[in-house]
What does this fold into?
Amino acid sequence: MSEYIEHDKTGSSAGLIEKKFYTFADQSDEMILENGTRFGPITLAYETCGTLNPDRSNVILILHALTGDSHMAGFYTKEDSKPGWWDIMVGPGKGIDTENFFVICSNIVGGCMGSTGPGSVNPKTGKPYGIDFPVITMGDMVRAQKALMDHLGIEKILSVIGGSLGGMQVLEWCVRYPRMVISAIPLATTTKHSALAIAFNEVARQAIMADPNWTGGNYYSGEKPDLGLAVARMIGHITYLSDESMRQKFGRRLQEKSDFSYDFSADFQVESYLRYQGTKFVERFDANSFLYITKAADYFDLERQYGDGSLVKAFSEVASKFLVVSFTSDWLYPTYQSKTMVKAMKKNGIDVSFCEIEAECGHDAFLLPNDRLTGLIRGFLEGVFNEVRA
Amino acid sequence: MSEYIEHDKTGSSAGLIEKKFYTFADQSDEMILENGTRFGPITLAYETCGTLNPDRSNVILILHALTGDSHMAGFYTKEDSKPGWWDIMVGPGKGIDTENFFVICSNIVGGCMGSTGPGSVNPKTGKPYGIDFPVITMGDMVRAQKALMDHLGIEKILSVIGGSLGGMQVLEWCVRYPRMVISAIPLATTTKHSALAIAFNEVARQAIMADPNWTGGNYYSGEKPDLGLAVARMIGHITYLSDESMRQKFGRRLQEKSDFSYDFSADFQVESYLRYQGTKFVERFDANSFLYITKAADYFDLERQYGDGSLVKAFSEVASKFLVVSFTSDWLYPTYQSKTMVKAMKKNGIDVSFCEIEAECGHDAFLLPNDRLTGLIRGFLEGVFNEVRA
It folds into this structure.
């Protein structure tokens, strides 16, 4: 989710990795989406690291956050300056040890990182879908990932792991395919968006749609809504940090000057940081994908969809073992939301460990180096792997 | 600041009020601004309520928040549907009792509510200033208000009162004119913007400047940057509420439908609320004024300007008695910022009462009916008035 985490190439031990694609189709070459429409074919981008053991018992599925991709660790080529987004956690000897586990990271439908999304060409028209692309849900994303697992011949997943929007996919996996998911680690996430989280997403969407270059989502042959998307990204970045982390990171420090400019240039470092994040983001992300994925996040609501309004009921069929982690300074998905989740799990007798990690860096904490988090994940995975092999 | 507070005309007791204007000029018909430039003439809009007593000892100066105006209470005409923005607090028998006090509310330079601002005509060109308008500071705003006080023949102010940006003006008044301000009530405010507050303002400014209708601030003869300003306002509204207040006010309730729309219309009530606030705001506010006032708020930093980096030193000449009020759920200017202020005041031996009011409605709490706040203000004013007359 956050690109400002700078990785050193030498820090990666996952080595070279290959981006793969799987285009799946059911009987009719289409999937029936949760909104009721038929849609397809769907391509998913994914990557793997480590070796699948003969009894296929060492599969870990990693799911990424809003603007992430399938490139979780390692490098595509030796020339890459940056490894995958979770290289600090995934690799030989790391928290998710690829010497023990076969780790898959799947992209999402609706995205723009190699999977079918609004920027993909609609085979019926020969042009990009734009907003003719159907509004997809977390359930649609996960069902597409399930088709990928079927294709790979995987019947049981030792652990499904992800943070933020990735954590929502984790929860959707557990509820939808309870017999397939042995354990799960939802990090810095929620079972439903609060009004505050919806509000931030809505303002970000409005910023995109207010950009005249958005032109109703049909901009692929012309100028892109870069200014609107940059504002949307800046809003996102505010939610990923925290009051405390921004104070420590930027405070009121000025940008390369000793006095105020008395104009509308970036005086403060925090302004310059946000502008830079916005500008950099538009180079790699599609504005329409931002609309679709944030909408899926806003719609996500386990108790509404699976529990007739009861979260306890929504978890009633779940059979996975859980490690739930929240971070003290995360104000996008605050700890109380994880606690609500854990409580509903416990009422169903689910085996759940919960940990709130003291962190000042806000929601983004799950992406940053944290020995406590690494230790928790490593220990949890060893435990469930031992149980499976026992 | 917030317009969603609906007033009932029958609730107002302040009666009819008249908007007044004062255009001031020093010797050279200009004022030297803090950025070093000469600027003028400057007109300030202001309103008064109550009667100035013969010894001029009952003056209260109210200063408003970012998007407020001088219309603090009562109605302009009998046909008005809404009274002034602080009608719940200002009027006969209210917290700020206009039967005892002569209450002045002054607008700010840089605004768009009758005072000189970027939308005013530049006498040198015959056209609106646009961004040729100088970047003004909290100090400039307060110095203009001081000229208004001089014009009205007021040498002592019993109490200067304001919330949010109004609270910053209150603090600036106390530091800049220590012998003139007998007491002060800064509400829900800060002595300097945090990185988080700057971040929100910067993203809002970027949203405005990203609107192609902004055209470098020179839009007064054509289409206005309404879409950008609406997004800026939506961002503001998120900061004025709180996670808890949004949960109570909106939760995940849907807007006039029982299921998701599966498109990008407003599904949730919170989305609809924000869109409405954005749309309504552009009818009454100038985008350039939004830029200038938020910049002044970001620049505001008492310890930098008056204390060589020390807030204690910044307050060293202050002679006012204080009532400082914060609200538990205000995450724009959280209580710890008020506590820092109070601590620095106490180190100077300043007589300060501090109260953190339990409130779930976020930063906007100071604008909402609250018996505790009303009682605190009434009691404090009675006390200082008695001392003055003793």
About this structure: Confidence is low (pLDDT under 50) at residues 1-10 of chain B. Chain B touches chain A through 58 residues (CB under 8 Å). The domain at 9-193+302-389 of chain B is CATH 3.40.50.1820 (Rossmann fold).
